[in-house]
Amino acid sequence: MASLEEDLTPGSRQSRCRKFFGKLGRLALDQWFLLGLGVVILIASQVQVPSSQLHIKQVVVTYLCVAIIFFATGCTLPTQALIKGISRWQVHLFIQIQCFLMTSAVIFGIVSACATNPHFMDGGLLVGLIFTGCVPTAISSNIVMTRKAHGNDALTVVQSALGNFLGPFITPLLVQMYIAPHAWYTDFLPESSGNYGEIYRRVFKQLGISVFMPMVVGQCLQYCFPKRIRKRSIQWMLSKLGSLSLLVIIWQTFDQAFGSNAFSSVKGNNIVFIVFISIVYFLIWLAICLATSMPWLSKRDTIAVAYCVPAKTPAMGVPLSNLMFVGLSSLQQAKIQIPMVIFQGLQISLSSLLAIYFRKWVAVEEKEDLDKQDEPGQSSVDSTVKA
Fold it and tell me: Of the segments 108-117, 257-266, 303-312, which one has the largest average pLDDT value?
């Protein structure tokens, strides 16, 4: 009875409130990126960049923000870890097969099962879903999220760059293979133009200027001034700067989607369906890549796989869809691109939440390693071995 009265006192209630709001504040600080994601999408939905400034916006965001992320990675990523990541060809093959073949096969199966009622689903959205499964993994979000989850960011850097190098060659072939049966939802598509020279030039130029060059500069600075760069990296909070750059990239994608009236061009129940099915196939991709990675890869490597495989980049999917089907109206192009844009927002939101559990997962392994090192007999064994 006394304990019950104590619990009902104003002081105990205030203490519980302080604890609750303290936990809420810590969660908000930990997930500030997710909150920022909601803010930039809200801003993009209300105010869009004028059409006359779209090209400048796209160039600045595409090159500058991505370059900031990879420069920060080059300044903080150990060179030996990067070299080791490049040499692991078995892991590269394992991840790229899943990024292109597994993801596209799963999503084609889902589309085939769902495309039963032409009066419910818009054909452009279903083609957009297939496109989403065929495009390569993201670059910027993979790096930011892998670091946030304490995964192997060196492996993520290599896989993201490799996937986007292969994407212009593999994605069109996969898309053509899946739309070849001529289902009802592909009737509006024109013949593929097949002229990919411009997309190759654009992609490789972007990879060189915004990915490889900043990465090399960051690695050189780290090699020449290791202590000074390490100190500056902490002072300038380069990881946070990379996260802010990613938010700007996401804002640019949604600004373009809202500016083209993409979301208002389709029925509301179709948008709800796309959101639901996007969450479903993200979880399927995640479950498959985790189940196939955990038996033979370390936890840090598994986390890198979990961020590379389910991630998809509209930065390549959008221009590829425009290039492959020349002659489509802007409304039809917008419908194809909607699933990619929606999936980007959902994928980054879910990835940010997963980082909480991945950090705890890695921490358990690190704690076990420390406990083994601190075992009473361990020091004597070590001294015997050294002797």
Answer: 303-312
**Was domain 55-355 assigned CATH 1.20.1530.20?**
yes
Task: Burial-class residue 218 by CB neighbours within 10 Å (0-12, 13-18, 19+).
Answer: buried
Q: Name the residue ranges covered by the structural domains of the chain.
A: 55-355
Cα–Cα distance list, 59 to 68, 71, 189, 249 (Å): 14, 18, 29, 11
Measured distance CA(12)–CA(18) in Å, rounded: 10
Average pLDDT, integer, range 15-25 = 75
Listed range (154-168, 232-246, 270-284) with the worst mean pLDDT: 232-246
Distance CA(52)–CA(359), nearest Å, equals: 44
